[in-house]
Amino acid sequence: MALLYCVVILLFSACEAKLQLPQGVNIKAVFAFGDSIVDQGNNNNLTTRAKCNFLPYGKDFMGGKPTGRFSNAKTPPDMIVEELGIKELMPAYFDPNLKVEDLKTGVSFASGASGYDLLTAITADLYTLGTRKIWVFGIPPIGCLPSQRQKSGGLARVCVEEYNQAAQLANTKLAAKIDSLSEILPQSELVFINIYDPLLDLIDNPDKYGFEEVKRCCCRPGKNKFLLCNNHTKTCEDDTKYLFWDGYHLTEKGYRVLVDQIFKE
Questions:
Q1: Mean model confidence pLDDT for the chain
Q2: Half-sphere exposure of 226 (CA within 13 A, CB side)
Q3: What is the DSSP string of 164-205?
Q4: What is the band of 2 on the pLDDT scale with cuts at 50, 70, 90?
Q5: Which of 35, 60, 108, 249 does the annotation list as catalytic?
Q6: Span 79-101, mean pLDDT?
Q7: What residue segments make up the domains of the chain, in order of their start?
Q8: Pairwise CA distance, residues 144 & 126, whole Å
């Protein structure tokens, strides 16, 4: 199972953000690298089985059109650029309709199922290219994903603590690596973003955030052991009551609440 990750580059300049930024801080562009959480549709045009450019993915997106985002609608990159006042959506780099102007304000280079191994190398390479401000998102409580609950959580679908402990250990090592890179890369601003605790809080306290179901996903692929949607998948009646869209990814509401919690920190 690939670990989910995200690297976000921030370019600073003048813009009007919804989010309250420190005085004198303005962000003009955001670029995302990572796995399926931030893949905005790049895999649509790549040779891979990890695709979601079909319904029910994107059923609640603008016009109900699947775009290759691994959710029912918007995903974290869209919400980040929206909150920062840059634009409404972050496009995929391989989007055939991409315009030069889109590159100036940010795109996603992410690819679903790309894995985690190259994260440090990517960060170092981006620095070599001139990048100085980078957010690195950590690993979520993977033992609480519906796919892992179904596979190893028993009849009660409990969180698999062994997997969660592995995620916490990986986050500790990743945060330490980011700190060490910050020390050896002059003038860099590398920030480790903890998503483990905010997401676990959503899972442990669903009522506080308006969710009713956190153990199962809205998209119900039947006997598909990977719990990813397919063309014949049935979905829940109200996805706003569900934290998870499929076995690995959140609903738009889930992502929005999570992103809001991260920005509050």
A1: 87
A2: 8
A3: HHHHHHHHHHHHHHHHHHHHHSTT-EEEEE--HHHHHHHHH-
A4: very low
A5: 249
A6: 94
A7: 42-263
A8: 32
User: Which tens digits make up the pLDDT trace of 205-235?
Assistant: 999 999 999 999 999 766 666 678 988 888 9
Q: Give CA–CA dist 8/138, Å, rounded.
A: 12
- The amino acid that residue 201 corresponds to is D
Tell me the Ramachandran region of residue 98: left when phi exceeds 0, alpha when psi lies from -120 to 50, beta otherwise.
Answer: beta
Residue 7's pLDDT is what?
Answer: 55
Q: Which two tokens stand for residue 145?
A: 């994903």
Residue at 250: amino acid letter? L
Structure tokens of 61? 């997106």
For 30, phi then psi, to 5°, come to -135, 130
36 catalytic? Reply is: yes
Reply yes or no on whether 246 is catalytic.
yes
Say if residue 63 is exposed, middle or buried (CB neighbours under 10 Å; 0-12, 13-18, 19+): exposed
In this prediction, what percent of the chain has a pLDDT beyond 90?
62
**pLDDT tens string 151-186:** 999 999 999 999 999 999 999 999 998 898 889 888
Q: Which conformational region is residue 130 in: left (phi greater than 0), alpha (psi within -120 to 50 degrees), or beta?
A: left
Q: pLDDT class for 6, splitting at 50, 70, 90?
A: low
Which of 35, 78, 239, 246 is catalytic? The answer is: 246
- Judging by beta carbons within 10 Å of its beta carbon (0-12, 13-18, 19+), is residue 210 exposed, middle or buried? exposed
Do 25 and 47 touch, CB atoms closer than 8 A?
no
Q: Which of 177 and 21 is assigned the larger pLDDT?
A: 177
Burial class (CB in 10 A: 0-12, 13-18, 19+), 47: exposed
Catalytic residue, chosen from 36, 71, 108, 147, is 36
